[in-house]
Amino acid sequence: MKDKVYSAVKSIPKGRVATYGDIALLSGYPGAQRAVGRLLHNNPFPGVVPCHRVVFVDGRLASAFAFGGEGVQRSLLEKEGVTFTPYGKVDMAKCRIKYE
């Protein structure tokens, strides 16, 4: 599962995000959002596997982002051009990658 999840996360382009559910589905494990979250929290390849691009379905960021917390995750996303709503959530309508 780990390799499939990391591969799916690596496919998210800069300036876009995917949800934990998107990654679970793409990896062949629909409904395994929590398992995806655990794998990304323990990501041994930060920078190579861009786990900061994975967010909750409502656009919230991970309060326990493993590589510096929510503020670091937001900063990384903003540097890539991801936009946020006035409520501090990712603008999912603009930034969520569309999988078909």
Walk me through what this model shows.
- The protein has helices at residues 2-10, 20-26, 33-41, 70-79, 92-95; strands at 18-19, 54-55.
- It has one domain (2-95): Arc Repressor Mutant, subunit A.
- Helices cover 39% and strands 4% of the residues.
- The chain is mainly alpha-helical.
- Helix 2 (20-26) packs across helix 3.
- The protein has a two-stranded parallel ribbon with strand order 1-2.
- The model has no long low-confidence stretch (mean pLDDT 92).
Please state the CA-atom Rg, rounded to the nearest Å: 12 Å
Provide the CATH superfamily: Winged helix-like DNA-binding domain superfamily/Winged helix DNA-binding domain
Average pLDDT score = 92
Task: Estimate the global geometry from the Cα principal axes.
Answer: globular
Order of helices and strands: HEHHEHH
Helix content: 25-40%
Give the count of helical stretches: 5
Named CATH topology: Arc Repressor Mutant, subunit A
**Structural class per helix/strand content?**
mainly alpha
Overall strand count? 2
Instruction: Report the sheet with the most strands, covering strand number, pairing sense and barrel closure.
Output: 2 strands, parallel
Q: Calculate the terminal CA-CA distance, rounded to whole Å.
A: 21 Å
Low-confidence stretches: none
**Count of folded domains:** 1
Give the spatial strand order of the biggest sheet: 1-2
Strand content: under 5%
CATH class: Mainly Alpha
CATH architecture: Orthogonal Bundle
